[in-house]
Structure formats: structure tokens, C-alpha cells
């Protein structure tokens, strides 16, 4: 007991002189907080999509293209909003732990609200080309997938779904342009690992859905039983 009090007091002293700021508001984090303070977390624009509360319907993006079991997004993405700041920190500023945190937060909701852990066998993130992976140093989708894996207690892999061509950025492209950019880009390293498996496919942001469509097509062509999609964010 005394030892815990000493550790707690030392941590409080460290926070006084070397405050650990919230990524969004820059206020000092409390000892129980991680990356984002409680006040900012409560202000995050959650979609509630898995509970049927969302105004967006991601499945319409895939209708008539590839069959998906579900499409859920954790947060709404708006320009200059809190979600954009989190995604940019994750993708462009080296804050990969943001992905793990968002994955854990959403995974806990999915486990509690709809028992998603009973309906998934394997989690995979949308892969980066090896050249982009070397440049960035990590795959942001894999960090989200790891967080979901921890919360849902479902295995994940970063080696099954691979990208065989280094495409140009999707930013600024319309849906057709994005599809042409990613068609025939993804492949399965070992089809036996996904055969008859219920796959959860994970990405950072859902926009047109072209990349996720291409990944889903590759998984289903390798005899996956089903594919569901989760993203950390989605445009309205």
C-alpha cells in the first residue's frame, strides 16, 4: 500500500514538472488517462453505427460490388475536426499508438454491445506496399487492428493480405479513379489461412470504399467465409 502511494506521488510529481499533454486539447493528462483526456474523448463524434444509430450507411458503398457482412465506423470524419486531427497524428506524425487506442475503445464497444467477438475468426488490416511501410515505419491500419484484437480477443495478422503494387495516393481521386488505382493490387499470401474464415478487415478512414472493396474481393476469391469491415472513421 505504501509502495503504491509512493509510486503515485512520484508520478504526480513528474506530471507537475513534465506534463503529458492530451493530443487534442494539450491539457495535462491525469494518471488514468491515455493519449486523449476524458473531456476530449466524450466530445469525439461517435457514429453509433453498430447500434443502428448512424446517419451514414457504409454498406451502400459496396452494394452490387462485393458482398460484405457489415461496415462499421467508429467516428465521423470532418475537415478540421477532432477526428481528422487524430487520423493525421496517426498517419503522418508518428503517433501510431493512437490507432491502438481507437481500436481498443471501439473493440470494447463492439464486444459489449453486439458481441462481435463471437462472429469473427481473424482480423487483418489493409496493407501498405513494402516501400511505403519502410518510409512511414509502420502501418496505421495494423495498429487499429491490434487494438481491436486486444479488445475482442481475436487473432490478427499483418502477413496474410499483401499489396503487390505501390499505387499513388488516393487523395483527390473520385471513386472510379480510386478503383482503377487499386484494382488487382492486393493478394493473399497463403489462401489456406483465410479459407472458411470470418474475416474482419480494418482500415483508417472509409471514403469511397475502393481500397476496401479490392481487399474484400481478394479475400473472398481465396474462399473466406465472409468479410466484415471496420474503420476508425468515415466521412458522412
UniProtKB/TrEMBL annotation:
<dbReference type="InterPro" id="IPR051910">
    <property type="entry name" value="ComF/GntX_DNA_util-trans"/>
</dbReference>
<dbReference type="InterPro" id="IPR029057">
    <property type="entry name" value="PRTase-like"/>
</dbReference>
<feature type="domain" description="Phosphoribosyltransferase">
    <location>
        <begin position="145"/>
        <end position="234"/>
    </location>
</feature>
<dbReference type="InterPro" id="IPR000836">
    <property type="entry name" value="PRTase_dom"/>
</dbReference>
<comment type="similarity">
    <text>Belongs to the ComF/GntX family.</text>
</comment>
<protein>
    <submittedName>
        <fullName>ComF family protein</fullName>
    </submittedName>
</protein>
<dbReference type="Pfam" id="PF00156">
    <property type="entry name" value="Pribosyltran"/>
</dbReference>
Amino acid at each position: 500500500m505504501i509502495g503504491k502511494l509512493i509510486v503515485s506521488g512520484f508520478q504526480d510529481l513528474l506530471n507537475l514538472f513534465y506534463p503529458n499533454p492530451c493530443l487534442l486539447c494539450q491539457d495535462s493528462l491525469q494518471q488514468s488517462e491515455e493519449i486523449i483526456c476524458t473531456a476530449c474523448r466524450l466530445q469525439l463524434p461517435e457514429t453509433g453505427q453498430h447500434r443502428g444509430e448512424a446517419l451514414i450507411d457504409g454498406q451502400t458503398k459496396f452494394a452490387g460490388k462485393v458482398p460484405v457482412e457489415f461496415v462499421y465506423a467508429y467516428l465521423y470524419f470532418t475537415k478540421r475536426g477532432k477526428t481528422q486531427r487524430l487520423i493525421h497524428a496517426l498517419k503522418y506524425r508518428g503517433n501510431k499508438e493512437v490507432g491502438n487506442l481507437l481500436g481498443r475503445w471501439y473493440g470494447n464497444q463492439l464486444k459489449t454491445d453486439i458481441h462481435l467477438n463471437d462472429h469473427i475468426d481473424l482480423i487483418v488490416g489493409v496493407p501498405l506496399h513494402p516501400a511505403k511501410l519502410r518510409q512511414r515505419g509502420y502501418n496505421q491500419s495494423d495498429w487499429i487492428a491490434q487494438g481491436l484484437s486486444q479488445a475482442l480477443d481475436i487473432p490478427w495478422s499483418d502477413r496474410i493480405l499483401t499489396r503487390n503494387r505501390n499505387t499513388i495516393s488516393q487523395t483527390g481521386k473520385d471513386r472510379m479513379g480510386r478503383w482503377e488505382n487499386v484494382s488487382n493490387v492486393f493478394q493473399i499470401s497463403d489462401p489456406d489461412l483465410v479459407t472458411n474464415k470470418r474475416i474482419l478487415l480494418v482500415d483508417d478512414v472509409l471514403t469511397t470504399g475502393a481500397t476496401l472493396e479490392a481487399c474484400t474481393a481478394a479475400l473472398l476469391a481465396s474462399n473466406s467465409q465472409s468479410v466484415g469491415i471496420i474503420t476508425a472513421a468515415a466521412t458522412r
